[in-house]
Structures are given as C-alpha cells and as structure tokens.
Design brief:
It contains 18 helices and 49 strands. The protein is α+β, with helices and mostly antiparallel strands. Strands 15, 18, 19, 22, 23, 24, 25 and 26 form an eight-stranded antiparallel beta sheet that branches. A six-stranded mixed beta sheet has the order 1-2-4-5-7-10. Strand 27, helix 15 and strand 28 form a beta-alpha-beta unit. Helix 4 packs parallel to helix 5, helix 5 packs parallel to helix 6 and helix 12 packs across helix 16.
C-alpha cells in the first residue's frame, strides 16, 4: 500500500494570499534561520525546500557585472530622452535579460538595485551619470517608467524587484561616508524626498537602498525617515537593503555607535532589512545580530519584521510558485528587438545644443572625425560587457563610407627614456582579446589584473606609447596593440588592460617633475615606476627618472585630418572610470586641457568644426566659434551608429538637457551645500545666465505653439495647447509645461516643471496636447505649519521648448489657505524650521530622531523665523541647547533682547539643558537668533 503524500504546507499553497503564506513560513523558520536571512546572501533552508537568495543585481542601464548583456545609454542619457514610454521599454528589456541570464547562471539575482533617483543637484558630482535629472518631477517620471518595465505587467508576479538608490540627499563622493547633508525642511519635502515619493507611490518599487552619507547629522542607515516617510507612501512591504559596507561604517568611519551590535540593532529598528557587508561572508553580520539580541537591543519581532519584508519580495518574484510564474521561462536576450531598442534609445538621448546650419551633413560631405573618444565605445562601472559596439568612427564609416571619412585620435605619441639612456619597451606577447569582467563577478571590485603577460622591459629604441591626459595630470598610456599599461597584484607594469577600469583603476599615471625629468607615479598604488633587472615595476624605493620624448603631438594629427575635410567632428568627453566617477567628484566644469588643445587645432585648421561631447556630465565650453555643438551621455552599444544617423539627418535630434549647463565654475555652489533654495541652485532657483538651460535641445525642423488654455476644476488645473511642425522634416518635439507663483510670500522656484510630452510630428502636422495637473502640484512646504500648503493667488503657466524658451503664457488664480503667523506662544519654534539661515547647519537632536541646528564652523550663525505671533504679549523665552555657547534673540533685526549662555558645557552633544531669560514682546515679529560657539539648539519656547 502506497503511503499518502504529506500535504504541502500553507506557504506552498498559491491559492492563499501572500500575507498568510508568509505568516506560515515565518512560523516554520528557526531563530537562527531568520537571522541568516538578514545578510545579502541568504542561505538555503533545505529542510523546507527554500533556495538561497541574494539581494542586489546591478541593472542601471542593462544587466551589469554578470558578463555580456545589452548595454543601453547611461541613466543620465535615458533622462535626456524625456521619454518615459521609451524608458519603460528599456526597463522591460533589461528585466527580461536578467531573467534569461538567471536561467543559466544562478549568481544573477532578481532583486535589482536600480534605478538611481538621486537628483543631479550639482554637476561636479562624480556619479552624475547614474541619475536622470536635476528636477524631481522629471526624475520620478523616468524612474517610474523604468521600474514599471523592470517589474513587468503581471498583476501578481514581478519579473524583477527594483530597489531605488540612494536614500537620501546624496550628491558627493568626497568623504561620502562621513559627510552630512544639511537639508532644511522645505528642501527635504519639495526636492529630495519628492523624486522617491512619486516613484514609490506609482507602485512598481520593491525597496530602497540608503546612501553612505549622513543627513542632518544622522547616518541614512538609521534614518527615521524610512519609517516616517518611505513606508507611509505605500501599503506594500518595502525591502530596505544597505549599501555595501555601510553597516560597518556606522562604527568604523562614522563613529556614530560604539559597537557593531548597537549599530546593527539601530539600523534594523530604523528599517534596514538586508545587510550588505563583508561580501559573501555572512558570519560577521550574523554574529552582530545575535549579539544585539542577547543584549536586548533587538527583539525577535524586529527580526521577523525584516524577514517578512524580504519574503514578501521573494513571493512576488514567483520563487514559491514556479509553475504559476509567467516570467520563469523568459529567454529574451540580445534579441534583434533589444538591439534596435538600444539604438533607438541612443538616438533619442542625443541633444543638439547649437546649430548654425552645418547640420545635418550632406550625403557627399567629406568628414574628419577626431578626438580621444572618436573611436571609443566606453563602458562605466555599472555597464555590462559589450556584445556589440559602435564607435563614432565606425558609425560614420558605415553611414558615409570609409573613403569619405578621415580619422585622427589626437593622442600624444611618446617614448619614455630612462636615466640610463634606454627606453620603456612593451615585449611582444600573444595577448588575446580578454575583456575585464567578461565572465561576470558578484563583486567586480575583486577582479585582479592580468599576470600572464610579460612585464615591460627597456631597450635601445623602446615602444611608442599613446599618451592621453584626461585632466588634472591623470594619464593613460597605451601600447601599439591597443592594450593599456596596467599594474597587477605583483607590482609589475604590463600592457594588459583592454580599457581603464576597476574599483581602483590600475591604468592611470601621473608625470611628476623631478630634477631634469619626471617620475612616473602609478595612481592606483601610489607608487612610482622603477626599472629592475626582472622588468618594470612600481615600488616604494628607487624610482626611475624619465625623459618624456614626444614623437608627435595629438593636435598635429588632428590638424592634418581636419584640413582634408569639409566638416570636422571633434568627439570629446570623459572616460567614465577617470576623473568623475563613484568615489571621485570632479573639480571643474572645464574641458580637460588635452582635449581643449585638440578642439583648438581642429578649429584653426577648419572652421566648419562640430563639437560632440560624449560625457557623463555637463561641461563649460565656449560655443561662440562653433557652428554646431551636440551632447550625449555614453550611449551604450549603439552609440556610434546613433550619432552618425543624427549627424547625417536620418534622425532629427530631440534629446533635451536633464540638468542646467552652467557657464563657469563660479556659478556653482559648494559641493556640500544642499540648500537648493538658499544658495539658488538648479534651474528652479538659479538667477544667473546658464550656458544652456534645463530642457534645452534643438531640432532640424521648427515647431509653433499656440492656443494655450487653462481652467481650474475638480481639484485640477486642465491645460491644453497645440504644437505644429512648421518645418519640412519629421521630428520629435518635447513640449514642456512649467509654472511660477506670481507673488509668493516665500521664495519659490523661478519656474517649475509640471509635465511634459514627447511627440512625433510630420511636416505640417499638428497635435493638441492636454495636461491635467493636480492642484497639489502648486503647493509648498510651509515650515510655519509643518505641512503642505497651497498659497492662494495667481500662478503663471508657461508652455514651450525649454525652461527658458517659453512660447505661451497664461495665468490661473487658485484658492488656497492664506498664510498664518507662527503661533509661537502655544507651539514654540522648532530650531530647524527656519525661514532663512546664514552659517548654520542642521544636525541630529538625538541618535534616533529629531533635528537641531548648530553653527556650521562652530563659531557663529544666524537664523530667521518670519511672522511669529506673540499675541497680547510674552514675558519670557527658553531655549533647549547642548554643548557650549550663546543664543541671542532679537526681533525684526533690532538689538538683542535676550542673551542666553551655557554656564558650562553640557556633558555630551545630546545632553540638552533649558535656559531661560526675561523678554517682553507682543504682536507679530520676525525672530532672529544668533548662535555663538559650538552649541546645538533644538527648540525655542515663549511664555507669557
């Protein structure tokens, strides 16, 4: 007699709702199994038939780190398309390739860490390439589209589970794990939180990743905002995954906690559910979690909450229902459709910044394509390995024919002569076409350089090397076979790398003047190059003194090629692994000197010079003498073909700038100044003249706007207008709708994007566009009432082709709530709720919650609180302070009415005391507070 099959446990029953199935599975897991689930690499539970699971598959613009995949334009390039529908299709293709790769390689995860929704507040941020825009509305529109593509359309099962990066106010790589972003309440709500909020509320987000930095003095990994804001925006369980190594940073670099047990417990309680630390070794995090439980810093309920969130994602991914998972058999990978989409995205990302009529190029044009990026198709840290590649040179060859295209890269061709009179020599070797990371790696930072090739030697004639100065004296040196000089773990210098790359780039050098020559410093190790009996190495001792022998300057080759052409296309920009990348901010907007020399040489030889910038960020260039100027982000595998088609007029460019291009470094605030309102940052507040404004981009045709109407009804502003193609080329236009408060009571944006539409119009065709804008889009965060408020009055609506190219205007009047003075007698003043400040930063009131303020340099600062209502009168003031110093109170900028000083320093930064003084005031006044000394002010109270 056959034994009956035991019934499946409820967590295996697809008829039950996920919540009940998760309850059942949680009840079956042991405490040790639950704790193990909290590391990035959650182990299998074989007794329950549960597979191993890992959080974190990079997929920013294609599947990254796991070998060959379709590579789409960088995220900032996708932002430049201003096309959510296109970006949704890109996300759809990426998620299908994740599934296809997962079927062959179980290292590939379905919890994808993408997209990045950090706003591109500052163009010198090293990770500018990862974001979509400086504007929260555009960022959320593109991010929402990408997450919907990554999620898939099935109502129950997700193709992949997107995690948004990096929560919160994260725009600097300089000291990123120890710096604090001071974010006032208005900036927090109106700017930094907004892009996250609108994307999460759209319903295709599985979680977020906190950033390395601190916000208002508190590390993001213990931020109360995870609970107060993030999880209030959706009823879905969101999985919060730590950034790599960040849990340890809380103790090791930030020194925010004394022990790792305290830090881990605080993170978990704050809302972190999965700890990415120590690579695949989960033992240390498990030990910390156990220690926290033993010390009573955590409860089993805290652990259950985090595990529940992870399981919620795993159930949605169909892990427990493979027979019902519609995505389980997905095999679409490198398909013709994906290749076509990569080209379409690259074409739509190209922005025409200036055109005096030289573009598009006529079919019989003789073209010289020159520059350091003219024959490059660059990857970045979050790229997959290229299956296909197209450089600008290859694209122009294909489009115009090799006989009509000249090429000059513009490298300096040099030899390096030693003090002994010999030259560096690259030995012949059977160097295959090995590409870094082609086999895939869970952590590409651990990939080592090649040691199978012979080190450099010296001989009487040496090898001619291609030298490029990428800016700031950072050099690469390339051998004639195309391999870059690199340094492996054994310290030997070899021509071994296909491209500069890696977490610590091993292919960059610096020439340092020394005596009558130069030392050659290897930047990856910080050591100098020396010549020894067994080859060329880097070492701490006996550096070689080299003479740089220039065989040919790059501008000489560029000038020769330019002189032979009708039109010169200079392709300049950045290498995404050098001078502006994760861990390294830029120092200037200027084009590197080497590339500026090439541009000048091309223009001198041929005035018909088109500059094409291929870069992860804006530059400050002078367009006055250029007949045409284009920009595109690194465009992925089809970049060259796309650029050639735009230059030839096969496609009319319609990309638009996703961030302001400033004319000079002097226009920029400090990199660590996050107060976009106070320091007038981004197109929202910038009062200068930009080089090119937000939303700018030209076309090969012209468009007319007319018929703007607007009416207010049912809680919305309904706006419509017509766009007509008045030229003779079919093209896309990006119609943009902005608003401006006409007479605001507080500083409001000069203009603010409400919505946009990218549309295709044939010559003579017209399209009527309609937008329904919720009245809430006109609100601002009222610090006096600590909530959103719609100010009554007139709002101008502006329709046009960019934030500055406004074609139509009208005004609507909105009913709202009038401003009320601050009821300070009843509620006092929260110190961080100021209207204006000078020399002050916001810090943490306690390690758990709350804000305080302190002089930024520890010496002095001032705060202003407008329209404070003292009613019939007050007789006293109290301040809650910690540290040491003085608070002076005055009204309306007058003399000090009260001076409150700590007699002795408090015992710690979180040990607050209350100080009081007599003061008489009545009616409504502006309160001014002057802070002196290293003290923290949390609150001000008034009594009468």
């Amino acid at each position: 007699m056959t034994a009956p099959t035991p019934p499946s446990p409820p967590f295996r029953d697809p008829r039950l709702p996920f919540a009940k199935r998760i309850d059942d599975l949680l009840s079956r897991l042991t405490p040790a199994e639950k704790i193990a689930f909290l590391h990035q690499f959650a182990p299998a539970v074989e007794r329950l038939g549960i597979a191993a699971f890992r959080t974190g598959q990079e997929a920013l613009h294609g599947v990254a780190w796991m070998g060959p995949a379709t590579v789409f334009p960088q995220a900032v390039g996708l932002g430049a398309t201003w096309n959510p529908e296109l970006v949704r299709r890109v996300g759809d293709a990426v998620s299908k390739e994740v599934r296809a790769l997962r079927a062959k390689d179980d290292r590939v995860g379905l919890n994808v860490w993408a997209p990045t929704v950090n706003l591109l507040r500052h163009p010198l941020w090293g990770r500018n390439e990862e974001g979509y825009s400086e504007d929260p509305k555009l960022t959320s529109a593109i991010a929402t589209a990408y997450t919907h593509g990554l999620r898939g359309d099935h109502p129950t099962y997700w193709r992949t589970a997107p995690v948004l990066k990096h929560w919160l106010a994260h725009n600097n790589e300089t000291d990123r794990s120890t710096t604090s972003s001071s974010v006032r309440p208005r900036v927090l709500h109106e700017y930094d939180l907004r892009a996250f909020r609108e994307t999460v509320e759209a319903g295709a987000v599985a979680g977020v990743m906190p950033a390395y930095n601190l916000v208002n003095g508190r590390p993001n990994h213990v931020s109360p905002y995870l609970g107060e804001h993030l999880r209030a925006w959706t009823e879905e369980d969101l999985l919060v995954c730590s950034d790599a190594g960040a849990p340890s940073n809380l103790v090791d670099s930030e020194h925010y906690f004394d022990t790792h047990e305290e830090a881990t417990a605080a993170s978990l309680v704050a809302g972190v559910d999965s700890f990415t630390d120590h690579g695949t070794d989960s033992s240390q995090m498990i030990g910390r979690l156990r220690g926290a439980l033993e010390r009573g810093l955590l409860s089993e309920a805290d652990v259950d909450t985090a595990v529940r969130r992870q399981l919620s994602v795993r159930f949605r991914l169909g892990e427990f229902d493979p027979e019902y998972d519609p995505h389980d058999a997905t095999s679409e990978f490198d398909t013709p459709a994906h290749r076509a989409l990569a080209r379409e995205a690259a074409e739509q990302a190209i922005v025409l910044l200036k055109n005096d009529g030289v573009l598009p190029l006529a079919p019989d044009t003789r073209v010289a394509v020159v520059g350091l990026l003219a024959d490059e198709c660059k990857r970045d840290w979050y790229s997959g390995t290229l299956i296909h590649r197209s450089t600008p040179l290859e694209g122009l060859y294909e489009r115009f024919g090799t006989e009509r295209v000249e090429f000059a890269e513009g490298v300096d061709r040099v030899r390096l002569k030693t003090s002994a009179g010999t030259f560096l020599h690259v030995p012949e070797a059977d160097a295959d076409d090995e590409v870094r990371g082609a086999e895939g790696a869970l952590d590409p930072a651990l990939l080592a350089g090649r040691t199978d090739l012979p080190p450099l030697t010296t001989d009487a004639s040496g090898t001619e090397l291609a030298l490029v100065d990428w800016g700031g004296g950072v050099l690469t040196l390339r051998a004639p076979d195309g391999r870059y000089l690199s340094v492996a773990d054994d310290g030997c210098v070899r021509a071994s790398a296909d491209q500069p790359g890696g977490w610590i780039v091993q292919e960059t050098f610096r020439l340092e003047p020394h005596e009558n020559g130069h030392l050659l410093k290897h930047l990856g190790t910080g050591r100098h190059v020396c010549v020894s009996a067994d080859g060329v190495k880097v070492a701490d001792e006996d550096p070689e003194v080299f003479e740089l022998v220039v065989v040919e300057r790059g501008e000489e080759a560029v000038a020769r090629a330019a002189a032979q052409a009708d039109v010169v296309v200079v392709v300049a920009g950045n290498d995404p692994h050098i001078n502006g990348r994760e861990t390294e901010d830029r120092t200037t907007l200027r084009l590197p000197g080497h590339q500026d020399r090439l541009l000048r040489a091309a223009r001198a030889a041929n005035p018909a010079t088109v500059l094409t910038l291929v870069s992860a960020y804006p530059y400050a260039v002078d367009p006055a003498d250029l007949p045409a100027l284009l920009w595109t982000a690194h465009g992925g595998q089809a970049a060259g073909t796309a650029l050639a088609r735009v230059l030839a007029g096969d496609v009319s460019p319609a990309g638009r700038l996703p961030q302001t291009w400033y004319a000079d470094d002097a226009d920029l605030p400090g990199l660590l100044d996050y107060d976009v309102i106070g320091s007038r940052q981004t197109y929202l507040y910038f009062e200068g003249t930009p080089l090119f404004p937000f939303g700018h981009g030209l076309s090969y045709t012209s468009f007319a706007y007319d018929g703007l109407t607007a009416r207010v009804e049912d809680g919305s502003v309904r706006v419509s207008f017509t766009v007509t193609n008045t030229g003779d080329v079919t093209a896309d236009e990006v119609a943009q709708l902005y608003t401006r408060a006409v007479d605001p009571s507080v500083p409001r944006p000069r203009r603010e994007l409400l919505d946009h539409r990218r549309l295709t119009l044939a010559p003579g065709a017209a399209a009527g566009l309609s937008f329904e804008v919720p009245v809430s889009a006109f609100e601002f965060w009222d610090v006096a009432q600590d909530r959103w408020r719609l100010e009554p009055g007139a709002y101008e609506l502006l329709a046009g082709a960019s934030s500055e190219d406004v074609r139509l205007r009208t005004t609507v009047t909105l009913d709202g709530e009038p401003a009320l003075p601050r009821a300070v007698v009843a509620g006092g003043l929260a110190a961080a709720g100021f209207d204006e400040q000078s020399g002050v930063e916001i810090v943490d009131r306690t390690k758990v919650s709350g804000d305080a303020v302190t002089p930024a340099d520890g010496t002095a600062g001032e705060l202003v609180y407008r329209a404070c209502d003292f009613g019939p009168g007050i007789s006293g003031v109290t301040v809650e302070v910690a540290g040491e110093g003085t608070v002076e109170l005055s009204l309306d900028g007058g003399p000090a009415l009260a001076v409150l000083s700590t007699a002795t320093p408090t015992s710690g930064p979180y040990d607050y005391v209350s100080l009081g003084a007599s003061v008489a005031a009545a009616g409504v006044h502006d309160v001014h507070l002057r802070l002196r000394g290293p003290l923290r002010l949390a609150r001000v109270g008034f009594s009468g």
